[in-house]
Amino acid sequence: MRRVSSADHPIPPVDTDPPEPASEGPARRTGARVFIGVAVLAQLLIPLTYYLRDDPYDERFAWRMFSGVRLQECEGSVTESHGDWEEAVNPYEVVPAGWVTGLERNRRPVMERYLALRCETPGMTSVRIENRCHEVDGEELPVVELTRDCATGELTP
Amino acid sequence: MSTNPARPGAFDRYFFGPVDLLRPYLLTRLLLALLAFDCWLDLVPHGGRYGVGGFNVAHFAFLDALLPLPTAPLYVGTVLVTGWLALTMALAGPTRVGMVVLTTLYTLTWSCSLLDTYQHHYLLSLLLVAMTCFPAITLPQALYGDLHTDLLADEATELGQARPRAPRESWGFVLFCVSCAIVYFYTAVTKTNADWRDGHAIARLAGHTDAARSMLRFAAEHDVGPGTFWGWFAKSAIAVQLVIAAGFVLAPAIDRVPRLRVRRVFAFWVLAPLSFHAGAAHMDLEIGWFTEYMLLVAVIVFLPRELLAGLLHLLSTPVRAAHTWLSAEEPSRVVAVLSALLGGAGVAGVFWLTDLPGGLYAGLLAAVMACALALWPLWPSSRGRGAGTLPTALAGLLGAGLLLLALAESDVRFDYYRNAGGDAGRLASEQHPELYLEAVAHYTKAKRYYPQAYREFWEAWDRDAASRVAAGEPAPDERRAHAEGAPPRPRDRQLAELQAIVADYRARGLLPAEGAPSAEPSPSP
Question: What residue segments make up the domains of chain A, in order of their start?
Fold first, then answer.
């Protein structure tokens, strides 16, 4: 074994560190500028896309912590139709509790996937999700509803 | 922006100006350490719900197409290895490649499923991207690399160290601060709607807490009604967040100001995030470890370097001692390779002991990473030396050991198995009887990891309740006790009920007899 440093020096000497490049080359600096520009611009613009989306419940990446939408209180129900009869279904008995929270928060991709999953059940003709929500000040909101026709895969509304 | 190196524009001056390297150094160590324990203690307990019934929706449609279904073993294993990698790099020092892998793994843990929609998880991915762009910083550079004073550098020379080089840029750190500023800015701006300004939202969030009740009492004594109080409280939260955002934009530039008094005064900016997040900590906001992260970031970004350097000196004492001992002699290549391999095997062994799904896969992945990290200093292009192998191998082992300690000293495994047992039990039915077996298996493990202190708490509670009822008094309110922080009850009753169902199903032939191979689980309940 080769001795490289003295135990008297509790902190590794600086001059044993990897040599530092003298200065960043122009190409490297330009690359850094582009990276910073893209990163900052993306962080500034992505939250704004929330206001252009049709879905007010998809607040991801918008930094809308504790918004009025997030604090709405919703009660969901699921109804499954089998030809000429239908039944109310407890979604907690179909998917883990974490997904039911997503359904009750009107997360469109979760609702769509849930409906598609239930439509795979033999004999199922349609599945409907209904959420009744109240604003944070207690005002009742229009019912959020999504239905899938299992034969055609069509979603309404 | 000017590209003339002689006269840099405002963009270049801001992003490429000198940075006090102590701050990014501390971020890479402390934030990564916090991330490790966050992964293990806060994410693992919810891992059992991933992939149940084949149901999942990723954050991005292309991930649904690209990634396999995130099952409990895949998710928990990835979270375990992500935490281990973060802690190993916090102890041994991060590498660029290691940071890229860490950022990718961490981002996958939340983006693979809409089960995780915590906004601060996206924020952490952004901050990790910025941290990936930090330069390699040594301890002396962090401790003695003051931007304005040569005294500390002279002190380093007196200690037998070479004088640190001239202050360097760290545009990654500036980007880190700008990212924080953007988040605070948007969180403030999005609170300007009527729901928030009128105080309805904050009253709903915080109104039930003891802190809120005492503040409302104080306000009432000064003839301020709850509506007015919450309105002002909400508006003050917006103002404080804007102040914090401005502070993060200014922070990198303030370090460059020559006048010490200006820098000292600016340090008081830390009071804005401290007050905001300390207040948030008193509300049951269910925001994971967001408060802890942002308090740590604020302290590192705003506090004066003198305080931070003192703290770092203290914290790094054992690391410096270990480093001195381990790198006193450079090991031969054979010794370095052997120690890396042994370290990797040790890490895999420790992961195997976690008794969590995915532990084995995570252990193998961590072992490969441990070897790669430890052998990295021997790689010619890394410009390193074999002396770095032993500390890195030891850091990997220490990281794995701390993982095991965190699991042993927390409720993580109990929480994981009781949550997974609860989900399986709710989804089980005559059509999906195999889920009863899963629930029994999970609850059996939950029973194994149920903390003794919790059992004693509930035994005492039940004795007290029985004596009260016998004396004609009402039984104590268990729901209220849970709301006030009582531990969860053991799952013994649920386990017994499920075992009875399994026995019944076995007798009816719906489940195979004990010891017989179980049927393949159905894709969907």
Answer: 17-52, 73-156
- Indicate whether this model's pTM tops 0.80: yes
Among partner residues B122, B140, B335, which is closest to A11 by beta-carbon distance?
A: B140
CA–CA distance, B282 with B275 (Å, rounded to integer): 11
Structural domain boundaries in chain B: 17-135, 170-315, 323-355+365-408, 412-507
Q: Looking at the complex, report in whole angstroms how far the Cα of residue A35 sits from the nearest Cα belonging to chain B.
A: 10
Report phi then psi at B522, rounded to 5: -70, 150
Among B158-167, B193-202, B491-500, the range scoring the smallest mean pLDDT is B158-167
Chain-chain contact of A19 with B383 (C-beta, under 8 angstroms): yes
Quick check: A140 contacting B, CB < 8 Å? no
Residue linked to tokens 């900016």: B269
Phi and psi (nearest 5°) for B34? -65, -40
Identify the band that residue A124 occupies on the pLDDT scale cut at 50, 70 and 90.
very high
Looking at the predicted structure, is the pLDDT value of residue A93 above 50?
yes
Over residues A40-61, the pLDDT tens digits come to: 999 999 999 998 888 889 999 9
Q: Does A46 touch chain B (CB under 8 A)?
A: no
- Cα separations (Å) of B349 from B353, B364, B387, B403, B409? 7, 9, 25, 12, 19
What is residue B212's three-state secondary structure?
helix
